[in-house]
């Protein structure tokens, strides 16, 4: 059976859960795709709403509604993106939902491919057909529906496809659990799984070793790391997230960052409030503004770039400490202080609303 749209399916309004004239229950109504609550009241309700989204059928129904709305609003995707190629490798960003990215990673010699976080199975299938490749693997960074919601539909279309991800993150249709630093192959491509808990307890990033093809490492970061930002701490502590970010940065400055969302303008605008005299930040914000005015993707960046302007990777910087009004306590361990800095940056970002 081929992939089809939602047309012809029974409306969710029969359940009183969206679609038609129905509405979502109070706990989930009005929350945005990534549970981005911008007020103290919203933050207070966040744990309840998040639990509904991540752990119940309501979350899946909400996701389906968001997919339908995004297809209507962005029939050609929310951004204009360009494939990137090395000798024997092609990376195709697929803009899906209102700001997500899936990625089709292709071994061009064999025509075999993996997809990272197939949010919208129709968009992913269209890319597979356009490229004329065989889908061998789904690499799922975490369980949230806007990253895993297309797993089941793609497996129906590609029955021999494998689904990789963390065993502790309740990923839909998981067939091949992988652990930290475990490697997997798709054609001649080698990926390494990197355990990066914090956003969820089992969040996992995937690193493509592009060295044999003359390219730098490629980090598919899901909701761990964005351009100038990082994911919310739904299921982890600042200490946990700090360790995960440090692990990612350890991949090297030339590593290409392929994030799960197009959040560049909002994250850079927020970062600018913390560092008013950062030339690298000013330059990146100007560039991103120009890109987004033309609806162009801002992906990828490099980890080296991110270290110059991403506040979540600058918890060791004195200028950030001063901007936050934080001082390291007497006898306080360096990493404990950095985690405290990250906590404060995250708190402010959670309340930030771009104007």
Rounded to an integer in angstroms, the radius of gyration calculated over CA atoms is 20 Å
Q: Please give the number of β-strands.
A: 15
CATH C-level class of the largest domain is Alpha Beta
- The coarse silhouette is globular
As residue ranges, the low-confidence spans are: 4-44
- Could you tell me how far the N terminus lies from the C terminus, measured between alpha carbons in angstroms? 45 Å
The helix fraction, in percent, is: 25-40%
The CATH superfamily of the largest domain is Ribonuclease Z/Hydroxyacylglutathione hydrolase-like
The largest β sheet comes out as:
7 strands, mixed
Cofactor: Zn(2+)
Pfam families: HAGH_C, Lactamase_B
GO molecular function: hydroxyacylglutathione hydrolase activity; metal ion binding
Protein name: PNKD metallo-beta-lactamase domain containing
Overall description:
With 355 residues, the chain is α/β, with parallel strands linked by helices. It has 2 domains: 49 residues, no CATH class; 277 residues, Metallo-beta-lactamase, Chain A (4-Layer Sandwich). It contains 11 helices and 15 strands. Strands 1-2-3-4-5-6-7 form a 7-stranded mixed sheet. Helix 1 packs across helix 2. The chain is globular. The N and C termini lie far apart (45 Å).
């Amino acid at each position: 059976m081929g992939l089809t749209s939602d047309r012809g399916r029974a409306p969710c309004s029969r359940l009183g859960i969206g679609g038609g004239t129905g509405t979502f229950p109070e706990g989930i109504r009005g929350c945005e795709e990534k549970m981005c609550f911008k007020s103290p009241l919203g933050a207070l309700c966040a744990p309840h709403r998040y639990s509904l989204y991540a752990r119940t059928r309501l979350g899946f129904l909400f996701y389906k509604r968001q997919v339908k709305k995004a297809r209507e609003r962005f029939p050609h995707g929310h951004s204009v993106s360009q494939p990137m190629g090395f000798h024997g490798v092609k990376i195709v960003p697929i803009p899906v939902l209102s700001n997500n990215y899936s990625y089709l990673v292709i071994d061009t010699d064999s025509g075999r491919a993996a997809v990272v976080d197939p949010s919208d199975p129709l968009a992913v299938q269209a890319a597979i057909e356009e490229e004329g490749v065989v889908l061998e693997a789904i690499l799922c960074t975490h369980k949230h529906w806007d990253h895993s919601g297309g797993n089941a539909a793609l497996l129906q279309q590609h029955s021999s496809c494998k689904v990789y991800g963390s065993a502790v993150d309740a990923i839909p249709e998981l067939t091949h659990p992988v652990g930290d630093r475990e490697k997997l192959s798709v054609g001649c491509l080698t990926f390494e799984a990197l355990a990066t808990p914090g956003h969820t307890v089992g969040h996992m990033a995937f690193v493509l070793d592009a060295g044999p093809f003359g390219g730098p490492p490629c980090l598919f970061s899901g909701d761990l790391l964005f351009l100038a930002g990082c994911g919310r701490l739904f299921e982890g502590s600042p200490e946990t997230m700090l360790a995960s970010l440090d692990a990612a940065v350890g991949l090297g400055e030339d590593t290409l960052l392929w994030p799960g969302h197009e959040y560049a303008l909002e994250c850079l605008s927020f970062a600018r409030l913390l560092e008013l005299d950062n030339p690298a930040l000013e330059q990146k914000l100007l560039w991103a503004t120009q890109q987004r005015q033309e609806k162009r993707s801002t992906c990828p960046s490099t980890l080296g770039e991110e270290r110059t302007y991403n506040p979540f990777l600058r918890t060791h910087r004195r200028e950030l400490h001063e901007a936050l009004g934080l001082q390291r306590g007497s006898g306080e361990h360096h990493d404990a202080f950095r985690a405290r800095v990250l906590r404060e940056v995250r708190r402010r970002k959670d309340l930030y609303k771009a104007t």
